[in-house]
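for the writeup, i need someone to sanity check this before i put it in the appendix. the sequnce is what the collaborator sent (i think, or maybe the updated version? ugh). structure was predicted straight from it, no edits. if anything looks off just tell me and ill rerun, i have time this weekend
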Amino acid sequence: MSLRHALLGLLAVAPATGYELAQKFEASMGTAWHASHSQIYPELARLHEAGMVEVVGEGARNSRTYAVTDAGHDEIRTWMLETEANRAQRNETAVRWFLLALLEPDDRRAAVERELANAEEYVAMLRATAEQLDALPFRHPFRGTVDLGLRTGAVMQQWLREQAEEA
């Protein structure tokens, strides 16, 4: 996944400090990918050097607020429209679900119940996020992605319930 483009996308919604970006990243894309502060700050520096973001404010302890520039918007557009996505993924959850059938029934049931609890927590988090976004005075650009998460979460929960019944 391209950290560069993820950060540009978040900054395209609203200017932010590196710390705020880390929080926004975790809240929005954290279920797909984790980015640490030690990855975010150097990438912000590279984006600034490349002219894709600019410093629009400075605060306490040398904090800087960044905003995306026209060049950054152009980079997002080029990446989205002209670059083929890397569709290869590592998804430990998918591997675990693939291997469920190898477990004895009691162990399989226990594993499925744990996975179902996790899926339910994920959907609850998405519902809370949807409520927060719906309370905004504008339609947040990532609201549709929350809906996608809710839909796929419901399908995953149903599949896990079926696996629990079969165990």
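The first helix runs from residue 3 to 13. The domain at 3-82 is CATH 1.10.10.10 (Arc Repressor Mutant, subunit A).
thx in advance!!
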